[in-house]
């Protein structure tokens, strides 16, 4: 998409889509620059008062240990957005790759992959992730892989339904008649025509992964100190909830704005308003 087409596509978005795009763009920028623009080290004890309110020095106040909430929020957003983006990329790549393999492969392979994914998807995602995290630990690499695997079956089912439908279309039959291999048919003939529906699924998977990572962190099974994502910031400051402390309100608001922004953008994009 050229720059002119991109501008026209943005202008064609409804107001809800523009708000969603602005929120998504904001959090992407924060994830990329947050560590560099944070006014304090995220682990530094900079205030003698815990759960302090907003001030000129500490815009979002201090947390339960007297650390700057804004600095920890900026760095925490980097983990939440970054890990979720990596996890959704892995999940969609694996799910779509297996779906295309099942669609163009022999029937026995399709049956094998489909039954395996049906088995995995029958397990609630949160319970599946909790069991794997409890068994293998919650380092950044393992946590990302575990969350990715959790959402592969859902993407597989959607991608497979799209791919199976495409295998019956004329241009795919023509490619087979030309003698094209399965690899070519899957990646050149079928995948480009699956991008738009998959875009909506990618957005939804991203939201699910953000909420799952935040939920695991809130339960103490996500990122471990000294690292902290947005869910960790909510958990560690939960004692300030009764005081309405910014230390718990701000990361909770950040999670909400990120997920709402992605949902608004997806909704606008899938209504056919983005060309």
UniProtKB/TrEMBL annotation:
The chain crosses the membrane at residues 20-38, 44-61, 73-104, 127-152, 202-224, 244-266. SUPFAM superfamilies: MetI-like. It is a multi-pass membrane protein. It is found in: Cell membrane. Residues 77-266 form the ABC transmembrane type-1 domain. One of its GO terms (cellular component) is plasma membrane. InterPro entries: BP-dependent_transpt_permease, MetI-like, MetI-like_sf. Its main location: membrane. Keywords: Cell membrane, Membrane, Transmembrane, Transmembrane helix, Transport. GO terms for biological process: transmembrane transport. PROSITE patterns: ABC_TM1. It comes from the Bacteria. Belongs to the binding-protein-dependent transport system permease family. This is ABC transporter permease. It comes from Sphingomonas tagetis.
């Amino acid at each position: 998409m050229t720059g002119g087409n991109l501008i026209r596509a943005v202008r064609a978005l409804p107001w809800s889509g523009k708000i969603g795009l602005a929120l998504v763009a904001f959090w992407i920028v924060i994830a990329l620059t947050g560590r560099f623009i944070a006014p304090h080290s995220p682990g530094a004890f900079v205030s003698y008062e815990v759960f302090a309110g907003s001030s000129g020095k500490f815009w979002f106040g201090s947390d339960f240990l007297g650390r700057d909430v804004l600095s920890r929020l900026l760095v925490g957003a980097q983990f939440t957005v970054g890990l979720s983006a990596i996890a959704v990329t892995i999940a969609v790549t694996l799910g779509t790759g297996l779906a295309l393999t099942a669609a163009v492969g022999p029937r026995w392979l399709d049956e094998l992959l489909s039954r395996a994914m049906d088995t995995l998807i029958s397990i609630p995602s949160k319970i599946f992730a909790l069991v794997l995290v409890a068994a293998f630990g919650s380092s950044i690499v393992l946590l990302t892989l575990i969350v990715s695997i959790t959402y592969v079956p859902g993407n597989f089912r959607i991608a497979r339904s799209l791919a199976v439908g495409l295998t019956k279309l004329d241009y795919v039959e023509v490619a087979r008649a030309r003698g094209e291999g399965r690899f070519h048919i899957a990646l050149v003939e079928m995948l480009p025509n699956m991008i738009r529906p998959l875009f909506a699924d990618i957005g939804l998977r991203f939201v699910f992964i953000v909420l799952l990572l935040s939920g695991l962190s809130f339960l103490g099974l996500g990122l471990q100190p000294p690292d902290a994502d947005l869910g960790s910031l909510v958990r560690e400051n939960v004692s300030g909830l009764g005081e309405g402390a910014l230390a718990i309100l701000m990361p909770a608001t950040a999670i909400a704005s990120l997920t709402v922004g992605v949902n608004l953008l997806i909704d606008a994009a899938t209504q056919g308003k983005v060309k």
